[in-house]
Amino acid sequence: KSECSVLRMFEIILELGMIHFPTELGFVFHQSWLGVGSHIQRSTSVFHDFSSKYGIERVTKIVHDQIISTLRPNNSITRQHLLFAAATNDNICLDGLYILFRSDPIALIAESSASS
Fold first, then answer.
1. Is the per-residue pLDDT at 114 higher than 80?
2. CA 19 to CA 6: how far, in whole Å?
3. pLDDT digits (tens, 9 = 90+) for 38-48
4. DSSP of 56-112, one letter per residue?
5. Are 86 and 100 in contact (CB under 8 A)?
6. What separation in angstroms does the CA of 88 have from each of 22, 49, 83, 94, 112?
7. Can you spell out the DSSP letters for 2-26?
8. Is the pLDDT of residue 75 over 90?
């Protein structure tokens, strides 16, 4: 498959994941435990795998755009809600938190101040 079609497929899967599981960040930042016998290790996330293969900037832009789309005013989910959900979920890697912070730190601070 061409690189564009694979990235488009990633975008569609992320979009559906964010619609149905926004507090899981569409599962693209999830890591799981893999183990054989006594050798247990954490796997990489889908985000990490795609970033390694197709470039961090391209994949981050896709994820960022989808997060912004999920946070539209008619949606009940806030950036603060997503951040809290990601920060308290042991299965979400730090890349997910980083992208949430990086997407609009001023808005996050404003949301925090408004809810206080």
1. no
2. 20
3. 666 667 889 99
4. HHHHHHHHHHHHHHHT-TTSS--HHHHHHHHHT-TTB-HHHHHHHHHH-HHHHHHHH
5. yes
6. 14, 23, 9, 11, 17
7. -HHHHHHHHHHHHHHHHHH-GGGGG
8. no
